[in-house]
Amino acid sequence: MWIIVAIICAALATFLYKYVFRTSGPNPFDIDTRAPLKPLVTQKKEKNKVLKQGFLASKVPEKLDAIVIGSGIGGLGVAVLLAKVGKRVLVLEQHDRAGGCCHTFTEKGFEFDVGIHYIGDLLEHKPFRCMLDQLTNGQLQWEPLDNPFDQVVLGPPGNRRTYPIYSGRDRFPDELKKFFPGEEAAIDEYMRLVKKAGHNIWFLGLLKLIPVPLAKFLVYTGLANRLSFFFRMASRSVTEVVNELTKNNDLRAIFSYIFGTYGNMPKDASFSMHSLMVCHYLTGAWYPIGGASEIAYHMIPIVEKAGGAVLVRAPVNRILFNDNKEAIGVSVIKGQEEIHVHAPMVISNAGIFNTYQQLLPKELQAMPAIQKQLGMMKNGAGGLSIFLGLTGTKEDLGLKANNYWIFTEHNMDELVETYLKGNREESAKSVPVLFVASPSAKDPTWEERSPGKCTLSLVSFANYEWFGEWKDDKVTNRGTDYKELKQIFCDSILEVVMSVFPKITRDKVEFIEAGTPITNTHYIGAPKGEIYGADHGTARFSAECNATVRPQTPLKNLYLTGQDVFVCGFAGALAGALTCGSVILNRNLHLDAIALAKKTKRVDTKKLK
């Protein structure tokens, strides 16, 4: 009996080793491609030459190796990885500028970011930082936020409690203990669970890289849960875990506050997903110098250098297949015309729902394997954004390089659930959770680029159904009722902002606009206005779901990348790109990035001596 068990274990270990450490394909991280830093380009006309290259059939490169649908970080990330090994890639973007949630827009002289508010885990020579350096040839620079990087505000005016959230593996819990004397054991246990679950994320990636039969074996024998603390904790909600740790309601709220970065209220959120976000910021938080558009601006030239292109105003209306159900290209709508573009491989960064429900022929949508994947996922929460343009410097307005999370009280589950189930006009008057960030205060180049002006990006959640009746109207003319509903949101949220930031007054407000879930559908192609892709509840993080939804689709030569392949956010979407690239290139790029990070650290250390 034990001999059989030993043989099975040895065979399993051999298979895992083979697929974890496989190195047969080309390596995009083979050499350090960081180049001397070039001056920051601030002229919009110059940047737009890169970011706003419109689609024409004549601009499509010949002999393509791959087509990528969508130019968010998941799409651009995999395109650059392929370009670095000589592949000719065409990236197609339906919006009028590249970048997806990394794009920026300008109104009345104010530049706003739409999705990049703060990124963690960017210490020098760490794998994530190394990977971003290589994907931008060292041209993308990062500015650290203040410490504390987050301020959590609980309660109504008159009874507000503000808790600073510090980075630092020791400082984060140590500062919490100062505010919550007597809760040291609860804080220590929370940190132990968070670190243990978050650091086990590698097993999620493993399930997506190994062959399907082996992944299923690990899932259905229960070995995936036994071997991975991440999967053992994935089925437990944040509320369930933190309520076992402490009875202090404010501390429960502080343990849970960061749920806004992935979109599920604590009672529905997977503790493992939550742990990833807490760990992500333990070493600090950063913002891209020059603004979020710098990300795509420095990635696109790498795609172009390899003979590829990134073209905008290129809505893909369907993926093309041959009689053998193999992806062979895409169809792009140009005016009233359909233009077919062919390539031996199609990679979709459009999200699992858009890809399977909108871009596949009906007969392929109906395939049991496609329906199984769709049945494991659901749409995430709709996002609401308010863009505020202010007159004055950051000093005048009391703005710093940090973020505020403002909650009307500590009972987050109850507050959010009541809000989302409420009448839209009434809910708009009392938004229970609000994220407040100032890109202008975080970017050291801002004052030179936009003197005397500041911006705030305000983010919350809203039901897609509240706005659904206007979804088919022209985006710039959705009628008086729609504008009035947006105004209710803007007025109530502005009141909250002014109560927390007393130097911001109505006379300082030069521009205010709301982006609703249907705005997100129009500009970033989110089918239900979600900003974090597919839902990040407990079901999303079962071992079975992660072994099933992977870069390879049930259709040959069609791959998925981005948030829905891995997890949400900038880092999650990039991890999705890295996983997709690993499958396509037949090597573990996650390990390649780690190896290059170690190598560059040694080289840079020698240079300093």
Automatic annotation (TrEMBL):
Swiss-Prot/TrEMBL keywords: Endoplasmic reticulum, FAD, Flavoprotein, Lipid metabolism, Membrane, NAD, NADP, Oxidoreductase, Signal, Transmembrane, Transmembrane helix
Protein name as it appears in the record: All-trans-retinol 13,14-reductase
Catalytic reaction(s) noted: all-trans-13,14-dihydroretinol + A = all-trans-retinol + AH2
Gene3D superfamilies the UniProt entry points to: FAD/NAD(P)-binding domain
Protein's UniProt keywords contain RNA-binding: no
Catalytic class of the enzyme: oxidoreductase
Its membrane topology: Peripheral membrane protein
Names of the cofactor(s): NAD(+); FAD; NADP(+)
Transmembrane domains' residue ranges: 66-83, 201-223
Location, primary (coarse class): endoplasmic reticulum
GO cellular component: endoplasmic reticulum membrane
Entry's localization field: Endoplasmic reticulum membrane
UniProt-listed PANTHER family: ALL-TRANS-RETINOL 13,14-REDUCTASE, BLR7054 PROTEIN
Similarity field: Belongs to the carotenoid/retinoid oxidoreductase family. CrtISO subfamily.
A single MF term (Gene Ontology): all-trans-retinol 13,14-reductase activity
Enzyme Commission code(s) on record: 1.3.99.23
Lineage of source species: Eukaryota, Metazoa, Chordata, Craniata, Vertebrata
